[in-house]
Amino acid sequence: MTLTEILHDISEALEAKSGEDIITLDLRNKGSLADAFILVTGNSEVHMKTLTETAEEILDKSGRKCRIEGSESSNWRLLDGGDVVVHVFSHKGREFYRLERLWEE
Q1: Torsion sign, CA atoms 82, 63, 66, 58
Q2: Domains of the chain, start order
Q3: pLDDT digits 0-9 by tens, 64-105
Q4: What pLDDT does 104 receive?
Q5: Which of 34, 36, 63, 89 minimizes the number of CB atoms within 10 Å of its CB?
């Protein structure tokens, strides 16, 4: 599965699970550790768990075994799939970390 395909599949699945403010950042020319970030906001801890599980399932199906950081956090969960990293935030966590602004600069 290509990078474009996996980003599309994850974004669509997160949208289908009512993820909010889904943003994909292409980092291939930024010299980062990953080729792309996907950022999504959940409405509650249960919703964040659902979004995390959804992204993990797609990463696994694509052959990208992921490591999850912050699985118990109520503000930010990170799924490291190697070339693709998915960030699942609460509203409070998204506002605090502002990753899209950091990486877009």
Answers
A1: positive
A2: 3-104 (3.30.460.10)
A3: 989 999 998 999 999 999 999 999 999 999 999 998 887 765
A4: 66
A5: 63
DSSP the chain: --HHHHHHHHHHHHHHTT-EEEEEEE-TTTT-SSSEEEEEE-SSHHHHHHHHHHHHHHHHHTT---EEE-TT-SSEEEEE-SSEEEEEE-HHHHHHH-HHHHHH-
The predicted model scores a pTM of: 0.94
Token couple for 77: 């969960």
Task: Identify the band that residue 9 occupies on the pLDDT scale cut at 50, 70 and 90.
Answer: very high
* Tokens, residue 57: 């399932």
